[in-house]
Amino acid sequence: MDTDFYKDVLMALSDGVYVVNKKREILFWSDGAEKVTGYSSSEVLGKRCADNVLCHVTAEGEELCTKGCPLRSTIRNGNLAEADVFLHHKLGHRVPVTVKATPLKDQAGKVVGAVEFFSQLSSQDNFLAELEKLRNTALTDRLTKVGNRRFGEITLENLTRKASDTPYGLLFVDIDHFKHVNDTWGHSVGDDVLRMVANSVSSGLRTGDAISRWGGEEFLLILPSSTVQELVTIGERLRMLVEKSWLEYQGTIIKVTASIGGAMVTKGEDVTSVLQRADKQLYFCKSNGRNMVSIDDAILITNKHTGGI
After folding, report:
1. Are strands 210-215 and 168-175 parallel, antiparallel or unpaired?
2. Domains assigned to the chain
3. 298-300 and 293-295 strand pairing
4. What does DSSP assign to residue 92?
5. CA–CA distance from 244 to each of 4, 17, 37, 100, 247 (Å)?
């Protein structure tokens, strides 16, 4: 069988596949890779995967292109490598994937490159499937394709009726300095930023969590069966994913950050009260440097820098 046969097989896979040489320059890019990342082969061939293409980060925010890269590890030691990471999509947001890297060797057994397979994590697939069901209903935000405010209100009403059995937490996610984005780049780019943030935040949620666009540049996240510590952990992960996202416009990289405030519902508490407590924590973030997370009485200040745009 010739090489075209194997190329056709790789192209037929729904998962992403790409091949690199020892310098990690991309030599082959499958149709599945384009589907998952948004990048076509013409945009990535000849580039290194770290050249503003995939730029993997861990759930803790560690950038793997300079340290801990599965491809680099495979090329160096000739062993298989696997990791769960968030890759960078062409539209700016982060996508959760499992990556598996395997070495490519010549006839003498010398490593000459590597191939990486990556697939979206199943929890995200489930979440996207749920969003797909919402897309054709009155409960979807037309711009970002997440739930709209009415969807959030209905979800809260349902949880409140079961609050004694199912504790839940809320997170408000608000894009920092969003007016500056609109004033500087225009509302079309502002819309792209809203979509980017919505997708990155969605990618960091658990199966069963809900996201709605509450208004303007603010999103409400509803997290059933949560604890205060889980709100802190999830909030920090989402803050990191937004900070590590970017989009390109007319040759300029546009980045934003987000402030996140949250609260756990207490027994017998009504929706208005818990929303007010979460909003108070969001205000605390906005008043103390932005790009940070504050959860009711468990305050976590993660980064006082406002980020760059």
Report:
1. unpaired
2. 3-121 (3.30.450.20), 139-296 (3.30.70.270)
3. antiparallel
4. S
5. 37, 23, 15, 22, 10
Tokens of 59: 């759930």
Is 230 among the catalytic positions? no
Structure tokens, 184: 């500087």
Q: Select from 243, 234, 247, 256 the least CA-distant residue to 300.
A: 234
Confidence (pTM) = 0.80
Q: What is the DSSP letter of 68?
A: T
Cβ-based neighbours of 215, under 8 Å, separated by 6 or more: 149
The secondary structure of residue 39, as a DSSP letter, is -
In whole angstroms, what is the distance from residue 271 CA to residue 137 CA? 24
Q: Among residues 158, 157, 159, 137, which one has the least CA distance to residue 148? A: 137
What one-character-per-residue DSSP string does 130-177 give? Answer: HHHHHHTSTTB-TTT-SB-HHHHHHHHHHHHHTTTTS-EEEEEEEETT
Q: Which residues pair with 120 in a beta bridge?
A: 97
72 residue type, one letter: R
Residues in contact with 278: Cβ distance below 8 Å, sequence separation at least 6, in sequence order: 170, 171, 172, 261, 262, 263, 296
- The predicted-structure confidence for 127-178, as pLDDT tens digits, reads as follows 555 555 655 567 899 999 999 999 999 889 888 776 556 789 999 999 999 9
Given 60, 63, 116, 217, the catalytic residue: 217
